[in-house]
Design brief:
alpha/beta; UDP N-Acetylglucosamine Acyltransferase, domain 1; 20 strands
């Protein structure tokens, strides 16, 4: 493992142990900030925006996330301008989660970057890794969509409600199902 910290390993996309004390401290920070966000007066848009700006790696102008919102670390999630996320967004941002401009995210969407070993020994020893997720500009994710590790969704695409996206989607398509399949070009 060398002299690299678990945080350095995680940020480099290498296997790491999630209950490392430094990572646990960063996760507690995110949990504290998301608790404040999720229990704020829903009419306090400025206060919620300030908390999201503190939590996230980037939070674009005129963007909105409706609480409740959950994430692992926050600083690995970057959201562009004029993006809207409805209630219940989960961003497991062990690896970077990049959400473009003008994205529409339905309720209960999950962006899941974390991966775990298939072999029982390393999994039992708490090793994990992650792969980044990228959501292009002007994408619409319907309610309940799950985006799996390593996926990129191209600009101007639509993903139907309840779909599970396990592979990259090109720009300007409609994809539906589990696993999500392209059913139409736009």
């Amino acid at each position: 493992m060398g002299d690299r910290s678990m945080r350095e390993r995680m940020l480099a996309g290498e296997p790491y142990i999630a209950d490392d004390p430094d990572l646990a401290r960063e996760s507690r920070r995110a949990q504290s900030l998301t608790h404040l966000i999720n229990t704020s007066d829903p009419t306090d848009h400025d206060g919620i925006r300030a908390l999201l700006t503190e939590l996230l790696g980037a939070f674009g102008e005129d963007s909105e996330i409706r609480p409740p919102f959950r994430c692992d670390y926050g600083y690995q999630t970057r959201i562009g301008a004029r993006t809207f996320a409805n209630w219940g967004l989960v961003s497991l941002d062990v690896a970077p989660v990049t959400i473009g401009d003008d994205v529409q995210i339905g309720p209960s969407v999950q962006l899941l970057t974390a991966t775990h070993p298939l072999e029982p020994g390393p999994r039992r020893d708490k090793w994990e890794a992650a792969e980044p997720i990228t959501i292009g500009d002007n994408v619409w994710l319907g309610g309940g969509v799950i985006v799996c590790p390593g996926v990129t969704i191209g600009a101007d695409s639509v993903v139907g409600a309840g779909s599970v996206v396990v592979r990259d989607l090109p720009p300007k398509v409609v994809a539906v199902g589990s696993p999500a399949r392209v059913v139409r070009d736009l």
